[in-house]
């Protein structure tokens, strides 16, 4: 889609239909091709955000490269205006093949090569060039169908183009993605694209085609649709092979929910792993170190009513429920599929100690920010076990405004603990979390715990080596009053990895590398970015 006027040339076409009907069919093709083009754009943005992370950066890369490439495509299309019908047919066939298979190739490069940035830029450039070539060619064709003035032709074409973009933009999240998924949805879109472009040229403009040109277009379009159909048939096998390449051979559960992709691998206490959108969120090899450090320092003091934000896997709840004087626990989890899996999967429910069977626990589906704005409850302890702050979708959950809502939900003597990402590898992100908590009026006590065995909550781009993976977890304990020293409170259960000495060392370790003058993150000025 490009806002420009194109000089029009060419004689009247010999049409098998009346000019008014031919004009309608050209505009219908514009509508369909525009819808397909926007689906390709959104599919690239969505898949890149999942595979690489940081949706703001990926959307900026895709859209800026694509718009630049559309300008190049418009210039290149001038060479094809003399044979506009054949040129348009070949452009749509190429766009259908490249756009339709883009999701497959991106996911394959991620699964088997470990990164997909170069493929993302390449597809953005190629698709943008082909989309940019559409309008000049269509302008030539519609002028040959109906000799209306140039201004009227431009208005009609762009009206059909923009309405088609609206339909494609709405169809992607509400129809294609939930019903077909990204891979099949892109292949289906490519097939529709090829059929629309080929039908327009081979029927409406067939009298303008020579025999060789006609058979060339028929052969190209049949080949493209056959390739897309074959890929659609094999897409399930491809997904299974790609998942094995990413997650290993132990994949037991793989579900695409309305929120994210949920993958569970392994079965035993030493092999269970939970991935959300390609990020390792739970590993049974070291999760106890993380959850003990997250929960128990905050439980020193009043703890009758506990709120857990995130933590749908039930592992933070497991630690909270080990205290007999806890009266109620509320878990607010965005994705109900995660809590359902934590409740029903034998391995995961065994790991979380069957926390969801405890009558003291209540699971609430919803966004933590929205839920906090609506709640009137007050809690002694708030445990923030949310996705990494470097993920764009989580940025608001680490903002000063969010912590202001947490303060409103805390009892006067209450405490909040926040998972703030690895301090060793992302110190600026960690200290931004701490600054945001202080900006909301919380006194803070930072600490970090070593002994991390896996890339827990690491980004999905596997191009980084194991030596670059984080080796610690960073936490911040906060309260509306002075926090005092870090300690394990009386009545705490026996812990496997954390004691008073380890906790004091964790606090000193964080303070030694404190960054001064770090500004807080707010909703209007987010300061978290996932590192490349």
From TrEMBL:
It is a multi-pass membrane protein. SUPFAM superfamilies: MFS general substrate transporter, S-adenosyl-L-methionine-dependent methyltransferases. The active site is at 385 (proton acceptor). The keyword Ribonucleoprotein does not apply. Its main location: membrane. InterPro entries: MFS_trans_sf (IPR036259), PABS (IPR030374), PABS_CS (IPR030373), SAM-dependent_MTases_sf (IPR029063), Spermi_synthase (IPR001045). Spermidine binds at residues 291, 313. Residues 226-468 form the PABS domain. It catalyses: S-adenosyl 3-(methylsulfanyl)propylamine + putrescine = S-methyl-5'-thioadenosine + spermidine + H(+). It is found in: Cell membrane. Keywords: Cell membrane, Membrane, Polyamine biosynthesis, Spermidine biosynthesis, Transferase, Transmembrane, Transmembrane helix. It is an enzyme of class 2 (transferase). The chain crosses the membrane at residues 24-52, 58-77, 89-113, 119-142, 154-177, 183-203, 215-235. Pathway: Amine and polyamine biosynthesis; spermidine biosynthesis; spermidine from putrescine: step 1/1. Its EC number is 2.5.1.16. S-methyl-5'-thioadenosine binds at residues 260, 333, 367-368. GO terms for molecular function: spermidine synthase activity. Catalyzes the irreversible transfer of a propylamine group from the amino donor S-adenosylmethioninamine (decarboxy-AdoMet) to putrescine (1,4-diaminobutane) to yield spermidine. Homodimer or homotetramer. Belongs to the spermidine/spermine synthase family. This is Polyamine aminopropyltransferase. The lineage of its organism: Bacteria, Bacillati, Actinomycetota, Actinomycetes, Kitasatosporales. The gene is speE.
């Amino acid at each position: 889609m490009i806002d420009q006027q194109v000089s029009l040339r060419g004689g009247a076409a010999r049409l098998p239909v009346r000019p008014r009907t031919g004009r309608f069919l050209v505009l219908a093709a514009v509508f369909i091709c525009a819808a397909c083009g926007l689906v390709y754009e959104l599919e690239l943005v969505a898949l890149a955000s999942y595979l690489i992370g940081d949706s703001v950066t990926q959307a900026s890369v895709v859209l800026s490269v694509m718009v630049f490439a559309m300008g190049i495509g418009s210039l290149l299309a001038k060479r094809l205006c003399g044979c506009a019908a054949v040129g348009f047919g070949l452009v749509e066939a190429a766009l259908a093949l490249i756009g339709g298979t883009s999701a497959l190739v991106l996911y394959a490069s991620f699964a088997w090569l470990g990164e997909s940035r170069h493929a993302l830029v390449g597809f953005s450039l190629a698709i943008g060039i082909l989309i940019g070539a559409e309008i000049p060619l269509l302008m030539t064709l519609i002028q040959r169908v109906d000799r209306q003035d140039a201004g009227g032709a431009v208005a009609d074409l762009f009206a059909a183009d923009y309405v088609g973009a609206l339909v494609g933009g709405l169809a992607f999240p509400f129809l294609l993605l939930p019903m077909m998924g990204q891979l099949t949805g892109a292949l289906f879109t490519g097939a529709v694209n090829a059929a629309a472009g080929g039908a327009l040229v081979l029927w409406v403009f067939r009298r303008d085609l020579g025999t060789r040109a006609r058979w060339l277009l028929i052969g190209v379009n049949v080949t493209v649709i056959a390739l897309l159909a074959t890929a659609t048939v094999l897409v399930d096998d491809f997904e299974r092979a790609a998942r094995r390449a990413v997650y290993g051979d132990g994949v037991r559960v793989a579900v695409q929910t309305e929120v994210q992709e949920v993958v569970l691998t392994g079965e035993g206490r030493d092999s269970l792993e939970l991935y959300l959108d390609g990020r390792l969120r739970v590993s049974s090899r070291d999760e106890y170190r993380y959850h003990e450090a997250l929960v128990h320092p905050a439980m020193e003091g009043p703890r009758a009513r506990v709120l857990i934000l995130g933590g749908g896997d039930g592992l933070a709840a497991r630690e909270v429920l080990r205290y007999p004087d806890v009266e109620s626990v509320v878990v607010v989890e965005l994705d109900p599929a995660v809590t359902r899996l934590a409740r029903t999967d034998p391995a995961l429910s065994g790991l979380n100690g069957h926390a969801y069977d405890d009558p003291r626990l209540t699971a609430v589906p919803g966004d933590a920010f929205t839920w906090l704005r609506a709640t009137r409850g007050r809690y002694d302890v708030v445990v923030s076990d949310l996705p990494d702050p470097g993920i764009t979708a989580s940025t608001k959950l680490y903002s000063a405004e969010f912590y202001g809502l947490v303060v409103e939900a805390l009892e006067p003597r209450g405490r909040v603990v926040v998972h703030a990402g690895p301090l060793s590898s992302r110190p600026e992100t960690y200290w931004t979390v701490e600054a945001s908590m202080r900006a909301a009026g919380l006194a803070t006590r930072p600490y970090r715990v070593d002994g991390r065995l896996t890339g827990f909550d690491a980004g999905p781009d596997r191009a980084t080596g194991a030596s670059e993976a984080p080796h610690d977890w960073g936490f911040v304990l906060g309260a509306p009053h002075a926090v005092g020293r870090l300690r394990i409170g009386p009545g705490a259960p026996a812990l496997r990895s954390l004691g008073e000495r380890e906790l004091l060392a964790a606090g000193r370790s964080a303070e030694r590398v404190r960054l001064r003058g770090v500004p807080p993150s707010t909703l209007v000025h987010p300061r978290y970015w996932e590192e490349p």
